[in-house]
Structures are given as structure tokens and as C-alpha cells.
Design brief:
170 residues, alpha+beta
């Protein structure tokens, strides 16, 4: 079974867009193979699209693989930092014990956290001063706001799945 067997891609995309609009995170829905089921809905900052555009996208891919493994094994949401140092959260999606994918957000920084502009500049092949300037576009958020975004996402996933279950039962 696939996520899109239960809920149309457009509904998943709308949920990601709601997270982006309400909280400012890059938000995506992934299938069980960690492949995006929709195109990006918006960028939290000016650095993330640069990372995703070239060979440096391995930064995002590695982070997603690691986060997905954690949520699959723990069956609970995970909040941490991606390989580039941005805040990231991921919610597992299980139906009747079967892992169907995950949903999450990234691209912001927790207040008082630091990011390694040198690492990002090397990964992107850009000058560090340019990266430092682009890092000024990264939103700073509180732990509470991050937790609120995760709760919002989890609640709306549950709502979508409950609606899908009711439809399939009739």
C-alpha cells in the first residue's frame, strides 16, 4: 500500500503547503522509499534551494535517510538537525502497522543555534562570505514553535488518515 492509495497527492501537497505557510518550514511528504510524493511548496530560506540544486543535495538525502530510519524504528516523531545544521522534524506515517512514509519540515534554525557557514560554502562551492549573507535569510524559531509545527503536522496527518479510513469503510 502507498500513501497515495489512501489520499491523493494534492491533499498531501496541501498539507505540506499549510505547514510552510503557517510555520515557514520547507515541508515535504515522502513515501516509504524516501521519495518525494510532490514538488516543493516553498523554501524556508535562500540556502536550501542551493543545497537541493546540485551534487550537494546528498546533504538532504543523507539527512532524510537517517531521520526516516529513526522514525521507522522508534515509530515516533524525531526532531534534530540536518547534515547542514538546520532544524528538521519528521513524523512517521503508519497504517495498521505498515510504514507508508513520513512527513516533515526543515530549513529553520532554533534560537541561539549556530550553523557552519564554512561547511556549507565548501559543499556548495561558494565563497563563505556569500553563504554567511544567505544565512541571514534563515528564520530563527523557538523550541516551542518547532514543537507546535510538529504537533500541527501530526494532527493533520491523523485527520487525513481517519477521513481516508472512514471512506474506505463505507
Amino acid at each position: 500500500m502507498e500513501l497515495t492509495d489512501l489520499i491523493p497527492v494534492e491533499s498531501w501537497r496541501q498539507l505540506a503547503e499549510d505547514v510552510y505557510k503557517n510555520f515557514g518550514f520547507n515541508s515535504c511528504i515522502y513515501n516509504k522509499d524516501n521519495l518525494l510524493i510532490h514538488s516543493p511548496v516553498g523554501w524556508a530560506n535562500e540556502v536550501c534551494p542551493l543545497i537541493k540544486a546540485g551534487d550537494s543535495r546528498v546533504i538532504c538525502a543523507t539527512s532524510q535517510q537517517n531521520f526516516s530510519k529513526k522514525v521507522f524504528q522508534s515509530r515516533t516523531p524525531v526532531i534534530d538537525e540536518c547534515e547542514a545544521g538546520f532544524s528538521k522534524f519528521l513524523v512517521p506515517i503508519f497504517i495498521n502497522g505498515e510504514f507508508l512514509g513520513s512527513a516533515g519540515g526543515c530549513g529553520c534554525l532554533i534560537m541561539d543555534s549556530k550553523i557552519d557557514s564554512f561547511y556549507i560554502s565548501k559543499a556548495l562551492g561558494k565563497d563563505e562570505p556569500e553563504i554567511r549573507s544567505l544565512l541571514n535569510t534563515v528564520p530563527r524559531i523557538s523550541q516551542d514553535k518547532l514543537a507546535e509545527a510538529l504537533t500541527y503536522l501530526q494532527k493533520h496527518i491523523d485527520k487525513l488518515l481517519n477521513t481516508a479510513n472512514r471512506k474506505s469503510a463505507t
